[in-house]
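Hi V.,

You were right to ask for the full record rather than a summary. Here it is.
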Amino acid sequence: MHVPARSSLLVLLLGLGCAGGCNGASSDDGDGATTMGTTTLGTTGPGSTGDATATTGTTQEPPGDTTEQPPGTTSTSDPTTDDSGSDTTDGGAPGDWLLTVDRGSAPPRLMKIALTGGAVEVCALAAAVDYASIVFARDGTLYGLDATTNRIDVINPCNCSFQLVGPTSLGPVALGLADNDQELLGIDPALDALVRIDLDTGLGTVVGPLGFMFGSAALSWANALALPYAIEADNDYLYTVAPPTGTATPGQLLSQDLSAPGLAVHPNGVLYACDGNAFYTIDPGSGLMTPVGPPLGLTGGCQTLTPPQTAVACIDAL
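Predicted structure:
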């Protein structure tokens, strides 16, 4: 009887000890689990902060590091800046020459005239065109008036190819340089008026009457005066023309009797004229025309002149 009592007491004591130990293990495990859960899911852990910081740094890179180019980078290396191959925009000084058209040859020819006289062929123009007047614009682009259609064309001075600009809606205009890059000036002999030619469309608009009869005329801009000179074959006078109004002011009577002249004020400041196969310099103070060099030897004579405004490598090399 005493043995079972001791056994029961022992079992009871062991049970109480086991219960305390088990409860202690259960509490520790619970506390640990809670603590680990808080650490794993918390937002203040270095791993979470580092990840957020890394992501923010990637998406907030300064714009332009890889997508923006310095101004002018593309245009400097752009191969389409001279798609005509005319080499008229290299920024060099204008050469010592003028251009004219031999309209009497078949096909007509673009001709270079040295400032010391003498003409040499640059290239043959298309047989279908008849450029009664040509002029270099300030950017070096060569324009021509086709007398058969009264249309403005862009001419490649290196190979004589051309692109259409548009009709002037006027008569056979004698072209000249303007004081800007958007237009040309011209004289319409049928209207005895100064006109402006839009370089985008070719369309001509009348500025105003010249005040004199201009039968066969030529026009060329003088940078020193900031206005153009003009000559005409009816009265053989050298004029200046006011661009805002078109009014022509007679200067000096020319020393030669003209028939179908060309006129050019070279960037060197000298006035040149041609008529038939004769080539001259003009003294604007006296009207004296001094022959330069031998006869030009053109089939149709020289009826238009234009000075270069930039270097043109293909013509400079001739």
